[in-house]
Amino acid sequence: MPQRQRYLFVCTNRRSDDDAKGSCANKGSEKVRQALKEQLAARGLAKIQARACTSSCLDQCSSGICILVEPDHFFYGRVTLADVPAIVEAIASGQRVERLVLTPEDLARG
Known about the structure:
The chain has a single domain (6-109), classed as Glutaredoxin (3-Layer(aba) Sandwich), CATH 3.40.30.10. Strand 3 (67-70) and strand 4 form a beta hairpin. The chain contains three helices and four strands, in the order E-H-E-E-E-H-H. The protein has helices at residues 29-42, 84-93, 104-109; strands at 6-11, 50-55, 67-70, 74-76. The protein has 110 residues and is α+β, with helices and mostly antiparallel strands.
C-alpha cells in the first residue's frame, strides 16, 4: 500500500469528567474521527490522500477537539462534526481550513 499524503491525528484522549483540563474524547472527538474516516472513504481519498488516525493527548486541551495534520505540521482546533466536510474538502483540494488552524498564541496556551 502506498504511503498516504497526509495523516490526520485526532486526539481521542479521555480524562475523568471532573478533570479541569477536560478531554477531547469527552467533547466528541471519537465521532469526529469516525466521520472523517467515513467521508474520506466516500470521496475516494482514504487510500492515497489521507488517513484519520486516533491519537492520545496532543497537548492542546484548551483548543477543544484538535487534529494534527502531518506532514504539513499544523493543528486544527475547536473542531466539531459540522467542520468535517470542510476538512475533507480541504484535503481533496490540497488546502487548509484556515478558520480552524491554531495560531501560535493558541498553541502556546496548550
